[in-house]
Write a structure and sequence with these properties.
The protein has 15 helices and 27 strands. It is an alpha+beta fold and 638 residues long. Helix 1 runs parallel beside helix 8 and helix 2 crosses helix 3. Bound molecules: flavin-adenine dinucleotide.
Amino acid sequence: MQFHHHGYVSGDPRVQPAAGVGVDRPAELPDEMDVLIVGSGPAGMLLAAQLSQYPDVVTRIIERRDGRLVLGQADGIQPRSVETFQAFGFAERIIAEAYNIGYMNFWGPDPADRSRIVRTSRTEDYGYKISEFPHLIVNQARVLDYFAEAAAHGPGRIAPDYGIEFVGLTVHEAGSEGATSGYPVEVRVRYTAGERAGEERTVRAKYVAGCDGARSGVRDAIGRKHLGGFSAHAWGVMDVVVNTDFPDWRTKCAINSEAGNILHIPREGGYLSRMYIDLGAVAEDDDHEVRKTPIEAIIAKANDILHPYTLDVRDVAWFSVYEVGHRVTDHFDDRSSDEADAAPRVFLTGDACHTHSAKAGQGMNVSMQDGFNLGWKLGSVVSGLAPESLLSTYSAERQPVAQQLIDFDREWSSLMARKPEEISDPQELATFYLGTAEFPSGFMTQYGPSMITGDASHQSLATGFPIGKRFKSSQVSFVCDGNVVHLGHHAKADGRWRVYAFADAPAAGEASALTDWAEWLSTSPDSPLARFTPEGADADAVFDVKAIYQQPHDQLDLTLAPEVFRPKTGPLGLTDWEKVFAAGPSYWCRTDIFEERGISRDGAVVVVRPDGYVAHVLPLTAPAELAEFFAGQMLARR
Ligand SMILES: Cc1cc2nc3c(=O)[nH]c(=O)nc-3n(C[C@H](O)[C@H](O)[C@H](O)COP(=O)(O)OP(=O)(O)OC[C@H]3O[C@@H](n4cnc5c(N)ncnc54)[C@H](O)[C@@H]3O)c2cc1C
């Protein structure tokens, strides 16, 4: 963590100085704002935390509830989400309070007596192998608390406006009278709490993000269709503390018995557990009556499935009954493809545009990635760094991800609901669980070529950083002090682009491609630094450029590195010592990032988006291609 560069900081360095609209933020919802977020669930709160890093953007987030969420539904946090928490600065703290899923065990009928269950396999959870970040269980309410803290501690100082609900909106088309104010989205809201409860008012925004969950009013207001339906299968879900003789009570388990199925997930704190209990097929004429199943019936069913083990439920923290539904919205913004010229004004994220069963633990995770995808795009456009056309990439990138999620969840939930006689191989569920790990972990998303994702013509220079996938970190050492660090963990969710320059290794007396590239970057009028960094801003305000050398740190002299990797920033003009890295292996750093990520020994440039996805891989010798890439998606400096 870097601080003191604006002068000595005596308090918590995680609290960034307020700036721009974060200074004297008005308590009252203003009449006009740049971005209005509707809903403070995981998608909306991540979006708010991201936009707090853009202090020249007026962002407000309205929430129907009168205060913080007390009891959330979601609890399964996938490794990509923990990686995202790291970028927002709270991964370590949330890991400490969460339950870490280390193993998943599988149970089935005992062949000798099919009325009893026995353990059929133990598997290490996929979280261990796929990432340096774990697979966690922690209440959604705590996730929201951490994002609320990040939003409040960012320079924009954003806090939810609780007790205000969205009622409806009208988008005034460009050129119409209503659009001339510069805030073309007219939004009707109503106070739901406090002295003004019941009062309606109209506010205006440049952009609206509908993060208002499965029954989204924003979705209805823009006429989008939520397509799909419910399957005729019901599940009970309960968060309980119990006394039991079931030996795997503190291990995640899929239990398949003659009496039905359970997905059992231990939760944070050492006592609480969540159980998804199969309530079986629902009659066609049931008309959702199954949702009235009492908790006593769900507990009795759980005991039947677990036989010969028993559950003595001592407290029920929460329970619900649901039928599995799979729905995805036809488009995630208010523009259709035949209006390609017009930029979208209203966006849908999270459950507002994709809903599915809870058991794969995906909804909150994918919703947060929707927010991450949209946040930097809105921030860049409103603050004048990027053209409005950037906003069309949101729906284009996230709609296919939602469709893949629905397809995956359909397969997982139907596997989970099978009867024992339908299972020929007892290892099948375990094989599916581990074999598909990259998808549920959140690492399979790969964005296709677009204005912000380059083509794969130079992919061979860095095969371990697939273009369109998230940047997978690896260990390196700081040259300044030899400390071993994770390169990717230095990429904070601060809205900046990362440009990693992996050095070539010229023989003594030969020219260095890295040095030539760095010279171009710092002096050429075509350099993205010169073209797109706002006048008067720090040299690394938009592009955080880092160098990674092939030699061990003790064979390098940081003061000889090109100056673009040692910019002088902040009001005191201090040299940044933490942008120059050395590859291992060394005593502490066991891996060589060049080997581990398939990086050419002739060097490579890896460009990473503000949301952590690899945007391009280029040779050090082709700076014009780098210039062209950014010219296609950014606006020249103001
Ligand atoms: C039983 C269960 C278990 C689950 N387990 C998991 C899990 O383990 N892992 C996982 O990833 N996902 C899980 N999910 C799914 C997860 O809860 C959702 O996918 C996630 O909460 C969606 O986030 P969101 O921000 O899109 O919407 P939500 O969390 O629904 O938030 C929407 C917010 O908008 C507010 N709102 C709604 N309408 C208005 C309005 N008109 N005006 C103002 N505010 C409004 C709501 O009050 C709410 O705060 C589970 C879901 C269920 C039901």
